[in-house]
Each structure stands twice: as structure tokens, then as C-alpha cells.
Design goal:
elongated, six-stranded mixed beta sheet
Length: 202
């Protein structure tokens, strides 16, 4: 099954829902691959068959994520607390997932670019022949990938939480998922965020 920029977005029955996308999977198909209680408790959006990829290729990681989602709950005090990584909400996931081997991951790297130059010369028959002028010389762009970070990675599955995020941090996480995928590090990404259904309450 292709692992092509897959992502699943979850939101507690009140968790900001992922923006609609043309590639969103059919909700009835998504339910086939995830546990009923998770489907009933969370607003779920799957893109590019991410739910199917999780179920078939990463069943252990899916089971652990579903267990963490089952244990997750909210109190009035936690809702009233200011956002940020130091709030209780991300710590709840860390207490569960860190013990199961989900680790923070950051990728960085240089890009090596080679440039070749050619000239054309006319041979004895009048045909133009392309000739390389000099051997390719590498040019290194340092820190071409710098600091893309995901809070939880296990095997080829990435998971992140954006509870009180602004649009730019939400987009940053999606970009990090995409970069990890393009570098061959992950096959699927899962993002939990607050549903728009919670806005009246909050």
C-alpha cells in the first residue's frame, strides 16, 4: 500500500478540526480501520488513506495511539489553563507514549548540489557535439533542512498534538510531517487538535 504523505487528524468530541481537503477519505471507509469507540469519541479526518495505512502497516502503533486517546480526558481546570507545551494536556500524552517508546525526533541536514557545464563544438561532419567543460563541482548548502521536529515518533509513525495552536504552528507541524515523509523517515502522520465544535464551550 503506498505511503504517500498520509495523515490522520483527530479531535476530541470537542477537540480545531483539520481543514477540509479535496483528498479527504470517505468517513465510512475511515471507520472500517479504526476502533468504534475512537470513532464515536473523536472527530476524525483521514487523508490519502492514512487510516488504512495505519491499520494494515502499523497495527502496533495504531493500538498504542488508540489506547492513549482512550485515556485522554479533559477537566474544566485544564481548559481554563493557558496554552503552551507546559500545560497539562500535552503532558497527558507524554506520560503514556514515552513509556511505549514514542520519542521526539528532529531532522536536519545539508544539501549537496552538483553543477555541470557544457559547450557545443562542430565536428568534421558539421554536427554539433556537446562537451563537458569541467568535472561537476559540489556546492554544499548547509542547514538546508534545519530543525524540523515532531513530538512523538515510533517506527515509521509520527504523532503530534496541537491544542491551542495558531495557524502558523499548525501549518508548521504539517510541513514537518511532509518533510519527514519526503526524507523517508515516516509513512504516516497523526495529529490531534481541538475540534471547532469546542469553540462555543471555550
Amino acid at each position: 500500500m503506498p505511503e504517500e504523505n498520509n495523515s490522520v487528524s483527530g479531535a476530541s468530541a470537542g477537540n480545531v478540526a483539520m481543514r477540509p481537503a479535496q483528498s479527504a477519505d470517505d468517513p465510512d471507509d475511515v471507520r472500517k480501520y479504526l476502533s468504534n469507540d475512537i470513532c464515536n469519541s473523536y472527530e476524525l479526518h483521514s487523508y490519502r488513506h492514512a487510516a488504512a495505512v495505519l491499520n494494515s502497516s502499523f497495527p502496533v502503533e495504531l493500538s498504542e495511539l488508540e489506547s492513549a486517546l482512550r485515556e485522554f480526558s479533559l477537566t474544566t481546570r485544564e481548559i481554563q489553563m493557558p496554552g503552551g507545551n507546559e500545560s497539562e494536556i500535552p503532558k497527558k500524552f507524554s506520560r503514556i507514549l514515552r513509556l511505549l517508546g514514542w520519542e521526539e525526533a528532529r531532522i536536519f541536514g545539508n544539501l549537496t548540489v552538483f553543477q555541470e557545464r557544457y559547450t557545443e563544438e562542430e565536428n568534421d561532419t558539421g554536427r554539433l557535439i556537446k562537451r563537458k567543460l569541467i568535472p561537476a563541482v559540489p556546492v554544499v548548502l548547509e542547514n538546508y533542512l534545519d530543525g524540523h521536529k515532531v513530538d512523538y515518533v515510533k517506527g515509521r509513525v509520527a504523532f503530534d498534538l496541537e491544542w491551542n495552536s495558531k495557524d502558523q504552528t499548525f501549518d508548521r507541524d504539517l510541513y514537518a510531517f511532509r518533510t519527514f515523509h519526503e526524507c523517508g523517515i515516516i509513512g504516516v502522520g497523526v495529529l490531534v487538535t481541538r475540534s471547532a465544535n469546542l469553540n462555543p464551550v471555550l
